[in-house]
Task: structure prediction
Amino acid sequence: MAKQYDVLFRLLLIGDSGVGKTCLLCRFTDNEFHPSHISTIGVDFKMKTIEVDGIKVRIQIWDTAGQERYQTITKQYYRRAQGIFLVYDISSERSYQHIMKWASDVDEYAPDGVQKILIGNKADEEQKRQVGREQGLQLAKEYGMDFYETSACTNLNIKESFTRLTELVLQAHKKELEGLRTCAADELNVVELEEEASKPQGSDHSPKTCWC
Result:
């Protein structure tokens, strides 16, 4: 039986607690928005398949807790990420300033060549804005990242940002893709992920596989 996707890899959402990482994830995967939710404990994930340049990509998107007490756990997930969203809240100057710390963690724990995008979330809360768009653009430029302002509430730039990070990961694996284009779908290699010591709770527990 042919696979329903060609490649599979992991994206990671990181940033301070309360910046809206879980809302971004739910909007992208389920097209749902829940303004009130319980903060993520440890790590959770969802799956979604999209098509980019004729390639069916199965994305395993990991939502990490922003609280400091969980960061020892969440940093373990950096190592096998192919793409990372660094998320701040445009109505929180503090969350913006903390992006430098999150970026430092990525440099220390994520693999070389991991693709990154900076996200300024809650763009619908213009009246509460503390971080200008130009500030986000400048910070993204300093770190060599693409930048999007998003809103899980209004669905602003949700599909666009996730698709863009997927494109960047695919471009980074161009050589592997050249091989994929010459193979039949049922012959493509998908590498199995190691079983985690503790499985995330309350999410779509699809088979853990990853194209690395």
